[in-house]
Amino acid sequence: MQRFEGKSVIITGAGSGLGRAAAIQIAKEKGKLALVDLNAAGLQETEREIRDIAPDAEIISVTANVANESEVQNYVAETLKNFGTIDGFFNNAGIEGKQNPTEDFGSDEFGKVLSINLAGVFYGLKHVLKVMREQGSGAVVNTASVGGIRGVGNQSGYAAAKHGVVGLTRNSAIEYGQYGVQINAIAPGAIMTPMVEGSLKQIDPENWEAVGQAFVEPNPMKRFGKPEEVGQLVAFLLSGDAGFINAAVIPIDGGQSYKY
User: Fold this and answer.
1) What are the residue boundaries of the structural domains of the chain, listed by start?
2) DSSP string spanning 28-72?
3) How many CA atoms lie within 13 A of 115 on its CB side?
4) Which regions of 41-180 does DSSP assign to beta strands (E)?
5) What rounded mean pLDDT belongs to the chain?
6) How far is residue 84's CA from residue 131's CA, in Å, rounded to a whole number?
7) Residue 255 — left, alpha, or beta (φ > 0 → left; ψ -120 to 50 → alpha)?
């Protein structure tokens, strides 16, 4: 398939995990990519992996902190300067933060998680949606979480931020659908990414793989999801194949969130 031929897509958090997987999938489908991450080395590795499968891919990489609005404005401006349009936006960058019960959850840590996972998503929407409204077209996928549609213990900041992402998604979709812009969110569950691995290591650094296996045992599919499975969903939602899907929050969790 070449669903993204001639189209440009911004991906934040492109230096690893879900962002990298989505970038690879969209590159396979001939998309032009603006890769954004705070980790410059991660961006280089993502671009290298893309070049291995799509040597002629049109790619720019922009190092940015999504919690800094001026840096968000810069990645939007760089995309427009290089590609002329913003046809898709995977608003994905985020962190998990430390794990503690609410009473022990640090106030600074709470603020840090919200600044990246919620304010960063808001800034991206604010500046990309203006472009898409003026174009009269575009598609956005925000990364929420199963933690944005139900509670997750010991992660006050993460759960609050991801619930906020769900709210921003639905609110913006109501506002911008009339301009030909679709805005949806994905709600990943246990996907084996570096962030999830780090979370398991917080619980038990020596036996994190066993912790992970116990974690997915209640899942109807009894396994972790793969980043590329999420990348395929993101590509679908950003493509014309998802033309009448708007304001949706789509779990990709093997069915676990429906079991409880």
Assistant:
1) 8-189+225-252
2) HTT-EEEEEES-HHHHHHHHHHHHHH-TT--EEEEE--TTSHHHH
3) 10
4) 59-63, 88-91, 138-143
5) 94
6) 10
7) left
Place of tokens 């911008």: 176
Tokens read off for 255: 């069915």
Distances (CA, A) of 259 to 137, 223, 256: 37, 15, 5
Burial (CB < 10 A; 0-12, 13-18, 19+), residue 44, is: middle
CB–CB of 18/191 below 8 Å?
Answer: yes
Q: How many C-beta atoms surround the C-beta of residue 151 within 10 A?
A: 10
pLDDT by residue (tens digit) across 212-233?
888 788 889 888 899 999 999 9
Q: Amino acid letter at 205?
A: P
* CA neighbor of 154 nearest in space, from 188, 122, 109: 109
CA distance 72 to 141: 16
Find tokens 């609410």 and name the residue: 102
The whole-model pTM stands at 0.94
Task: Give pLDDT tens digits for 234-253.
Answer: 999 999 999 999 999 999 99
Second-level CATH architecture of 8-189+225-252: 3-Layer(aba) Sandwich (3.40)
Residues noted as catalytic: 158
